[in-house]
Amino acid sequence: MIKIASLIKLHDGYSTGHSLQCNLGDGFLCSRNAFFAAIRDWAIEQGLHFSTEYSPLWRQYQSLPFFSLQDIFDARVVPYMDNVTVFRNALQLDPSLALPLRFMLETLKKNYILHESSHYVAYKTLEAWRNREGAPGSDKEWFVTYCLLSECMARMMERFAIFSADSEFHSVLLEFNCYTNVSEKNQKIYDRAAAGASVPQLFYLGLMMALWSNITAEPLPDNMRRRFFELAFGEAESRAKETEEILEFVKTITSLSAEFREYTTRSYFRLYGCEKEFDQALVSTTQDARRVEWVSDYFHDLVDSLYRRVSAKQEEIRAASPAAVIAQSA
Q1: Which residues contact 148 (CB under 8 A, 6 or more apart)?
Q2: pLDDT of 329 above 60
Q3: Cα–Cα 20 to 30 A to 188, which of 75, 82, 277, 299?
Q4: Which residues, other chains included, contact 77 with Cβ-Cβ below 8 Å and sequence gap of 6+?
Q5: What is the number of other CB atoms lying within 10 angstroms of the CB of residue 43?
Q6: DSSP per-residue codes, 180-235
Q7: Average pLDDT for 26-51
Q8: Residue 322 — pLDDT band, cuts 50, 70, 90?
Q9: Which three-class secondary structure state does DSSP give residue 3?
Q10: What is the dihedral of CA 300, 129, 119, 241, to 10 degrees?
């Protein structure tokens, strides 16, 4: 059982200049999770805002978020729900209120600010790559490409934020803020993989593999897997890195339901008249040598920029850790 008074006390005990007091756990995650904090700062630098205003975009997003991506890009706003005030009001009626964790995870309205912010950062940073050799030519192809690549970023950011959690409480708050579920099994798979490769290398490899799974349910051919490993680790080390641990990790974090892909990704592109370009994306992004190099270079640049920010946040967190421990135990 979760004592709601204790949960709100912990929620109120953390805040940063960019945290949102009406999103459950936001201050804690901005203070204690380097991935969550880094993408928040980066998104705000790129012009993104966050709003609980009852606007047409807010209503659309609460109804069907999967169809709202371009609207978020255009408005530079991520709509979110105030999921804290309801607990403050409930505590006025029953100060001893406690609820089962599973019940809360299944019924509380979650916010996916990390996911949408990651989409936005990828979308904005891709703009500088629009006219480089190997970039998509037509507007429709460009649209499909930046949507697919930004979805890779959003998927990996959730997973690596979860992998970096250092306590059960930390993991619980991430579950309130992510599509991805916390899994002890997946954490062990990640830990084994991270023993044989750097985190940036695994993140980059995850991006490349996720791009494949975003487009098709077909198994990744051996030649493409080897190519992705070469791009991640370099030709000299790639074969040695194709270990059981890393292969299991990649398979775990990039798996995606074929039905989900059809009902979300394909339907989204059909809305914008880009279904043909989506069908052609597998060939253009994985078999065209210039496009593969363009995607790879962009992902490397994205990961380098991200990890400079994550590393800086990790240093801030380590420096503040004694105060954080005191606050969490109060």
Answers
A1: 211, 214, 215, 265, 281, 285
A2: no
A3: 299
A4: 48, 49, 50, 51, 57
A5: 24
A6: SPP-HHHHHHHHHHHTSS-HHHHHHHHHHHHHHHHH--SPPPHHHHHHHHHHHH-H
A7: 98
A8: low
A9: strand
A10: -20
User: Encoding tokens for residue 140?
Assistant: 């429709």
195-230 residues labelled b (16+ CB within 10 A) or e (exposed): eebebbbbbbbbbbbbbbbbbeeeebeeebbebbbb
Q: Is the separation of the CB atoms in 284 and 141 below 8 Å?
A: yes
Residues 149-195: tens digit of each pLDDT: 999 999 999 999 999 999 999 999 999 999 999 999 999 999 999 99
pLDDT digits (tens, 9 = 90+) for 215-260: 887 888 888 899 999 999 999 999 999 999 999 999 898 888 888 8
Query: Which tokens in the block code for residue 109?
Result: 């309205």
CB under 8 Å to 132, separation ≥6 — which residues?
A: 294
d(CA 155, CA 256): 10
CA–centroid distance for 28 within its chain: 17
Structure tokens at 329: 């135990």
DSSP 134: T
Longest dimension (CA), the chain: 65
- Count H helices, E strands: the chain? 19, 4
Q: Which residue type does 227 have? A: R
Query: Could you tell me the two tokens for 223?
Result: 């030649």
**Beta partners for residue 99, in sequence order:** 2
User: What is the phi/psi pair of residue 31, to 5°?
Assistant: -90, -30
* Average pLDDT for the chain: 93
Give the C-alpha distances (Å, rounded to integers) separating 318 from 34, 37, 182, 327. Answer: 10, 14, 23, 15
C-alpha count within 13 angstroms, C-beta hemisphere, residue 194: 12
